[in-house]
Write a structure and sequence with these properties.
Layout: H1 4-11, E1 37-46, H2 57-75, E2 78-88, H3 94-109, E3 114-122, E4 127-136, E5 152-156, H4 161-171, H5 177-188, H6 194-199, E6 206-210, H7 214-225, E7 228-232, H8 240-243, H9 251-257, E8 263-268, H10 273-283, E9 287-294, E10 299-302, H11 318-321
Parallel strand pairs: 2-3, 7-10
Antiparallel strand pairs: 1-4, 2-4, 5-8, 5-9, 6-8, 7-9
Helix pairs in contact: 2-3, 4-5
The structure holds adenosine-5'-diphosphate and magnesium ion.
Adenosine-5'-diphosphate binds near residues 12, 25, 26 and 118.
Length: about 325
């Protein structure tokens, strides 16, 4: 592989139309919009833990950007700038770097986000650390802590599809070609719900993006808001691919606790429902009401027969698992 500097010059320099000074100096220089707040978020992906070494590098590049864009979506922020810290070993090789960089750039560019810098280091394990910066008008960011008793709980998309795709890869679960494509697309190239997050800014009381499982991430939102929730399993939307796995043991776990959905879970007062449906339609996303926020601390999920289900409101915890 060529030197660090040649790699940067060849693969990591892209037009950055919203940036005063991009890759090449000691720092990038950006001019934030006057009066707006900066939203900043970082995510780290580790090989063999968050992605397989043999994942298609273009798709991995896209996903590395998408998981960060999803944090912007959850906050109702407009993503503007991103940096990439990456360790590379000889194992990856240049075609990998080329494809990864194209994917990373393409995903950012489709959201008008400039790739403005980063760090490139040789390392034994591929680690991908992305920082993203966005903008939001003061006071309008969608925090986790705003949920109120009486709110309804909503989720976008069909949770569990990425986890179903992962299970298919790990256990060769039988699936139609169409379902397989759908689930692997959800796993490898999630669609950050940026437009939905922006549209929800003055509608939703609280929001979080679902990366570690629906119940776990909703649990974080409820914790931050100091409230409880009552949900119904039958209200949680399932994709055709998931519905065709009705006989699969543990499909509920995929829907409730599967990771990597990158959907939005949010709460809003009941009278906001028409506005939410309209906002989702404009954003090209489906949304569904799955329950209600309560004043106590209870967390209850009812099965279709109306019985409380025995589920853990915990998702994937990297430290616990390790
Ligand atoms: P320094 O040693 O001053 O930190 P580097 O030699 O690490 O600078 O980087 C030189 C330039 O290349 C910087 O502008 C940096 O932002 C950019 N750069 C390095 N790695 C990446 C990367 N993975 N993606 C984008 N830009 C990068
Ligand atoms: Mg320097």
């Amino acid at each position: 592989m060529r030197s660090e500097f040649d790699l940067i010059r060849r693969y990591f320099i892209h037009p950055a139309p919203h940036t005063r000074l991009s890759v090449g100096d000691d720092c990038a220089l950006m001019a934030p919009s006057p009066g707006l707040e900066l939203a900043v978020s970082t995510d780290v992906l580790v090989a063999e833990r968050h992605f397989f070494g043999d994942t298609d590098p273009y798709r991995l590049g896209r996903k590395s950007a998408a998981v960060n864009l999803s944090d912007m979506a959850a906050m109702g922020a407009v993503p503007r700038w991103a940096t990439l810290g990456i360790t590379l070993s000889e194992q990856q090789g240049e075609p990998w770097v080329d494809a990864f960089a194209r994917g990373f750039h393409d995903e950012l560019q489709s959201f008008g986000t400039d790739w403005v810098g980063g760090d490139t280091t040789a390392g034994p394990l591929a680690v991908i650390a992305v920082t993203i910066l966005g903008e939001v008008p003061p006071g309008l960011a969608l925090r986790r802590s705003g949920a109120r008793p009486g709110d309804e709980v909503w989720v976008s998309g069909t949770p569990g599809d990425a986890a179903l795709g992962l299970r298919h890869l790990k256990e060769s679960l039988p699936m139609t070609a169409e379902d397989r494509r759908h689930c692997l697309d959800r796993l490898e190239t999630p669609s950050p719900r940026v437009a939905l997050g922006l549209a929800l800014r003055s509608i939703a009381h609280a929001a979080i993006d679902v990366s570690d499982g629906l119940l776990a991430d909703l649990g974080h939102l409820l914790d931050a808001s100091g409230v409880g929730a009552v949900l119904e399993l039958s209200l949680i939307p399932r994709s055709p691919a998931m519905l065709r796995q009705q006989g699969l043991r543990g499909w509920e776990t995929l829907v409730l606790a599967g990771g990597d959905d990158y959907e939005l879970c949010f709460t809003a007062p009941p009278q906001a429902a028409p506005d939410i449906q309209a906002a989702a339609a404009r954003a090209g996303v489906t949304v569904a009401r799955i329950g209600a926020v309560t004043g106590g601390r209870e967390r209850v999920l009812y099965d279709p027969a109306g019985r409380p289900m025995d589920v853990a409101w915990l998702g994937f915890d990297h430290f616990r698992k390790a």
